[in-house]
Amino acid sequence: MSKAAWHAYNTYRKGVSYRSQLSVTAALLNAQREDILAFQREQLTKLLRHAYQTTPYYRELLKTESAHISQIPTLEKRNIREQLEHLCSKAIPQARRIKNATGGSTGAPLTFYQDRNYWNQRNLSVYYFDRWAGWNFGERQLIIWGALSDVENNQDWKHQLNNFWRNHHWLNGFHLTDAAMWTTFRKMDRCHPQTILAYPSSLYQFAAFLFENGLAPKWDLKGIITSAEMLHSHYRSLTETVFGTKIYNRYGGREVGLIAMECAAGRMHINCHDLYLEIDSPNPYTTPGDILITQLNNYAMPFIRYRIGDIGRLSDEVCPCGNQLPILAELLGRSTATFRTRTDTLIHGGYFTQQFYNVIGLEQFQLIQESLKHCVLKVVVNAQWTEAARRYMVQKIQGALGADVIVTVQFVEEIPLPTSGKREFTISKVGVGRND
């Protein structure tokens, strides 16, 4: 019944059978590298022409509709906040705009507009890439999510009906109580989901709960899809051990959709169907830099060379999986979670997470780089905490950032989640103004 509902839903939304559109999308994403790049060039040309002809912002910025992508100034978050209406295409009626917003995990939420074609194309890409993890239309899926806009109406009858026909079961990543996790485990033991879609931190918390309570899932999972947060190595290790299957990490954003996804060989392939990705670096294959995204399908409000706020690096290798989509070799996470030293060395926030996750007596932590000379370390501790643990954490911070860095340790009762629901273990305020 769920598979039939998927077919009817997609056919209604897209106007034609989704199978035919998905086959076209899959053909592109499975194509040879030269064909993929030719497609991107064609889509870029169309988008830039549309932006110049129909949006006040880009008509003033580009001066000509034949501008080369590399010569176009980057689109910053502050530009969107200040020029929202001027960024919207005059060729798309206001009634056809779809309003959306980020969760505000790195500051104030960012409001923007998309259109129906963007969502149709975005969904086709998600369908294609999620099948790498074993997902298929109508099969049971456990979703552990925390974005407020996605879970706040969880008790609404429309939400319940939507979950029913999609064959979804939701576990609220905002409120992972022992009772909720225990109830979910028992329910999944009865219905056996084929895949899991989850926030990495929420998935890790659920896996830790099962491990600590001796609960072994026997669900015969095909795969696990993680998204929206950094997937730290200890998250992956414990989760894959507990559930007995592979994690396929997905990288994306509400502003531009799915950016890249991990294949069976462990490489992160870029979604060339929907976007063009650049690295703001002298050599994107050797030196990490800010990720710039040009969304190819959102004609309601073009995103051209948008600085999404993450840092990464490209690879020129040929993936062992056989797929020829370009590879994102490194994803270092939010630029606001990447620490900088006085010598301008970049330290990924995940370094500290890996160092601290097994410190005895430590319940939670949050490391904030206030300046090149000062860090604040917030900790939630239990009775096993020792002064040696405090010294160890301070030494690790100073070892990475500099021996003269002052580390202020603050003992707190709780480190609350931000409104986005994404756990922020590391925050750097050094250079934030450059991107925002």
Condensed summary:
The chain is α/β, with parallel strands linked by helices. Helices cover 36% and strands 24% of the residues.
Secondary-structure blueprint of this entry?
Layout: H1 2-14, H2 18-29, H3 33-54, H4 56-62, H5 77-82, H6 84-87, E1 98-101, E2 111-114, H7 116-130, E3 141-145, H8 148-151, H9 157-166, E4 168-172, H10 178-191, E5 195-198, H11 200-212, E6 223-226, H12 233-243, E7 247-253, E8 257-262, E9 268-270, E10 275-280, E11 289-295, E12 306-315, E13 327-334, E14 338-340, E15 346-348, H13 350-356, E16 362-371, E17 374-381, H14 387-401, E18 406-411, E19 426-428, H15 432-435
Parallel strand pairs: 3-4, 3-5, 5-6, 6-7, 16-19, 17-18
Antiparallel strand pairs: 1-2, 7-8, 8-9, 9-13, 10-11, 11-12, 12-13, 14-15, 16-17
Helix pairs in contact: 2-7, 3-4, 11-12
Give structural notes.
With 436 residues, this protein is α/β, with parallel strands linked by helices. The chain contains 15 helices and 19 strands. The strands form 4 sheets. The chain has an 11-stranded mixed β-sheet with strand order 4-3-5-6-7-8-9-13-12-11-10, sandwiched between helices. Helix 2 crosses helix 7, helix 3 crosses helix 4 and helix 11 packs across helix 12.
